[in-house]
């Protein structure tokens, strides 16, 4: 532990979620090292007092906690394999990426092989909640080191839901929640697109919903973005398509028929094919 009795933390992946996670951990007094495949993104954190490292192994060397915030399961596996020679047995691994049920089993097995204490802890929330330390952490993992894990979760989120002692439960819950978020996104996008197609001002849909039982902060935020044509990514179409595919695959694995989830994936794929992959998932409206 460092002089303040806080663990040294390595954050692997400093994109829309990883960068604010690193900043918020640093603000709460943790010594933070960061690595990203695009080194400029990690270097950008140097101004905040965060040490940018040239490789995953450099980042995790002597770290007591590793946080992975990467695109998908194969990316997490590849980066942790690269970090493995510098990892010490007993290091706590907080896996915050959305990776699906197959990949989380692979990562848990890797953690066991390397002697790491593994927490499956995907986060609910996009760029803005991450920046404000308002993420919801969906955690599963052993009781033994939860106090340490909770100190980090409290630094990056407003709430931690402990789902199970067995890794994988957090990832399964995340898929169910993402399915709901995608349904809301497409439902709004298609309703506004239908209004426009019927020669009705889409803003009238928002006006009628506002203040009623169908209203929500999410509805208002995405509606505002669509009406303004502002698709700066909080969560991109490309990432949404990846996660929607994980939902469909999980449903098939569980033997649950999800017709809307399959349609959701098709719509995200169509938006990506139309060149909107780097835009916010509200760009579902454009297709």
Automatic annotation (TrEMBL):
<dbReference type="InterPro" id="IPR015815">
    <property type="entry name" value="HIBADH-related"/>
</dbReference>
<dbReference type="InterPro" id="IPR013328">
    <property type="entry name" value="6PGD_dom2"/>
</dbReference>
<dbReference type="Pfam" id="PF14833">
    <property type="entry name" value="NAD_binding_11"/>
</dbReference>
<feature type="domain" description="3-hydroxyisobutyrate dehydrogenase-like NAD-binding">
    <location>
        <begin position="168"/>
        <end position="284"/>
    </location>
</feature>
<dbReference type="GO" id="GO:0061596">
    <property type="term" value="F:3-sulfolactaldehyde reductase activity"/>
</dbReference>
<feature type="domain" description="6-phosphogluconate dehydrogenase NADP-binding">
    <location>
        <begin position="9"/>
        <end position="162"/>
    </location>
</feature>
<dbReference type="InterPro" id="IPR036291">
    <property type="entry name" value="NAD(P)-bd_dom_sf"/>
</dbReference>
<protein>
    <submittedName>
        <fullName>3-sulfolactaldehyde reductase</fullName>
        <ecNumber>1.1.1.373</ecNumber>
    </submittedName>
</protein>
<dbReference type="InterPro" id="IPR029154">
    <property type="entry name" value="HIBADH-like_NADP-bd"/>
</dbReference>
<keyword id="KW-0520">NAD</keyword>
<dbReference type="GO" id="GO:0051287">
    <property type="term" value="F:NAD binding"/>
</dbReference>
<dbReference type="InterPro" id="IPR006115">
    <property type="entry name" value="6PGDH_NADP-bd"/>
</dbReference>
<dbReference type="InterPro" id="IPR051265">
    <property type="entry name" value="HIBADH-related_NP60_sf"/>
</dbReference>
<feature type="active site">
    <location>
        <position position="174"/>
    </location>
</feature>
<keyword id="KW-0560">Oxidoreductase</keyword>
<dbReference type="GO" id="GO:0050661">
    <property type="term" value="F:NADP binding"/>
</dbReference>
<dbReference type="InterPro" id="IPR008927">
    <property type="entry name" value="6-PGluconate_DH-like_C_sf"/>
</dbReference>
<dbReference type="Pfam" id="PF03446">
    <property type="entry name" value="NAD_binding_2"/>
</dbReference>
């Amino acid at each position: 532990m460092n002089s303040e009795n806080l663990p040294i933390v390595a954050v692997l992946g400093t994109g829309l979620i990883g960068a604010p996670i690193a900043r918020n951990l640093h603000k709460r007094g943790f010594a933070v090292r960061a690595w990203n495949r695009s080194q400029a993104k990690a270097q950008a954190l140097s101004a905040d007092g965060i040490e940018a490292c040239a490789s995953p192994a450099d980042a995790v060397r002597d770290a007591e906690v590793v946080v992975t915030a990467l695109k998908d399961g194969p990316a997490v596996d590849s980066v942790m394999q690269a970090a493995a020679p510098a990892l010490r047995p007993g290091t706590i691994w907080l896996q915050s990426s959305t990776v699906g049920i197959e990949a989380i089993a692979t990562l848990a097995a890797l953690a066991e092989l390397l002697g790491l204490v593994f927490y499956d802890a995907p986060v609910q929330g996009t760029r803005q909640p991450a920046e404000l330390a308002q993420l919801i952490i969906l955690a599963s993992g052993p009781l033994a080191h939860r106090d340490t894990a909770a100190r980090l979760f409290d630094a990056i989120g407003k709430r931690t839901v402990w789902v199970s002692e067995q890794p994988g439960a957090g990832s399964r819950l995340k898929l169910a929640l993402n399915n709901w978020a995608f349904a809301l996104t497409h439902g709004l996008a298609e309703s506004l697109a239908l209004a426009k197609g019927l020669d009705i001002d889409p803003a009238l849909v928002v006006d009628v919903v506002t203040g009623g039982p169908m209203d929500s902060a999410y509805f208002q935020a995405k509606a505002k973005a669509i009406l303004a044509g502002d698709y700066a990514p909080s969560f991109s179409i490309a990432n949404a398509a990846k996660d929607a595919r994980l939902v469909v695959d999980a449903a098939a694995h569980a033997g649950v028929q999800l017709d809307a989830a399959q349609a959701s994936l098709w719509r995200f794929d169509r938006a990506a094919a139309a060149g909107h992959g780097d835009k916010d998932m509200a760009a579902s409206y454009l297709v």
